[in-house]
Amino acid sequence: MIALPLILSIAAFLSLGLSTDAHHRRRFGAGPTAGRRRALRWVGWLGLGAAFLPAILARGWMFGPILWVAAIMAGAAIAFLVLNLVPDPRSRA
Asked: Is residue 93 part of a domain?
């Protein structure tokens, strides 16, 4: 149950990152359409909010919010590293 907030946070920050032109273009070859950008942002923000409940269920009201914030910080760091340092597999020859 502790891993679920982290997984949701990573997915949320990847969605928020892919809603930007630069990251979307790097991964998919073109910028996102307005509808896709809006959907990726919604998924990202909902994912961050959804990560709160499993954190509370895992650690209770005393340490659950701390777990949630830690999962958000770790998810942001992992998503940043993935979006900026992992090469696009299509670019390899």
From this structure: no
Does the residue 64 lie in any domain?
Answer: yes
User: What domain range is 74 assigned to?
Assistant: 3-87
H/E run at residue 49? helix 34-50
Amino acid (one-letter) located at 27: R
In contact, 41 and 5? CB cutoff 8 Å:
no
Using alpha carbons, select from 43, 42, 67 the residue that is nearest to residue 53.
Answer: 67
Digit-coded pLDDT (tens) for 9-60: 999 999 999 999 988 888 888 888 999 999 999 999 999 999 999 999 999 9
Rounded to two decimals, what is the model's pTM?
0.89
Distance of CA 57 to the CA centre of its chain: 21
Q: Would you say 28 and 40 are in contact if contact means Cβ atoms under 8 Å apart?
A: no
